[in-house]
Design brief:
The protein has 249 residues and is of the alpha/beta class. The protein folds into 2 domains: 164 residues, P-loop containing nucleotide triphosphate hydrolases (Rossmann fold); 73 residues, no CATH class. It is built from 9 helices and 10 strands. Helix 3 packs across helix 4. The radius of gyration is 19 Å and the shape is globular. Bound molecules: adenosine-5'-triphosphate. The site of adenosine-5'-triphosphate has 11 residues, from strand 2 and helix 1. The site of adenosine-5'-triphosphate (ATP) has 11 residues, from strand 2 and helix 1.
Length: 249
Amino acid sequence: MSLLNVQGLVKRFGGLLATDHVDLDVKAGEIHALIGPNGAGKSTLVNLVSGLFAPDEGTITLDGVELVGKSMNQRVRYGLSRCFQVTSIFPDQTVWANLMLAAQAHEGSSFRFFGQRNHEAVLQQRALGLAEKTGLGDCLSHLAGTLPHGVQRKLDVALALASRPKLLLLDEPMAGMGPEDSLQMIELIRRLRQECAILLIEHDMDAVFQLADRISVLVYGRVLTSGDATHIQGHPQVQAVYLGTGEQA
Ligand SMILES: Nc1ncnc2c1ncn2[C@@H]1O[C@H](COP(=O)(O)OP(=O)(O)OP(=O)(O)O)[C@@H](O)[C@H]1O
């Protein structure tokens, strides 16, 4: 059964149909990549799923729960999380403080029956687990704002994982990275598959073909086709879109 199920989703900006009756599903444990040329509607679709935008038509369910009409916070409680391209980190705080704050934000309500000391120990354990998962163990005492871009992106992922999501939305996680950081991010995303399903928007096709179980191609707000890397690479209309002979598409 699908974890995320999007049916007949429509988003208009004035006269522009940015999301044109999109159907999409992401299965549990799957990395599903969303690709397409600039302006195809990838970010709009992720913004609709995360709750930043409200759709004009259609349904979005996560694990059977309808998300349309729910706030972004409610969606997080139902198991959705997204990376915000580093804007969610506290730059003046250490990596450790960032992780502790994130752990506290998501574990806070489950401590009614524990004493203060247990509470602190559980938060520390949780923060340490997030650091280990994302490879941040060596820079816990560093101020987040002074970290290199690639490490800040890892911290952003760690913060998004703090809510224990069922589905993680990653919008261009490799943007602005050099080859070494990109490789590390690819490794991190690959490991995350054990934690949650991922809907990945990425322009780096090498990364997409390495990581994605399935790929959906958006063109002019519509899903042109979905399938595995072999299907997508051999699809004539996808080739036309990417090689610039757009008439076929
Ligand atoms: N808030 C908005 N108001 C008006 N138009 C918008 C808004 N957000 C996006 N659009 C338009 O919707 C269309 C889809 O944009 P979107 O950013 O979703 O595409 P994209 O596939 O993510 O592009 P890119 O790869 O360049 O980020 C574009 O024509 C864009 O100009």
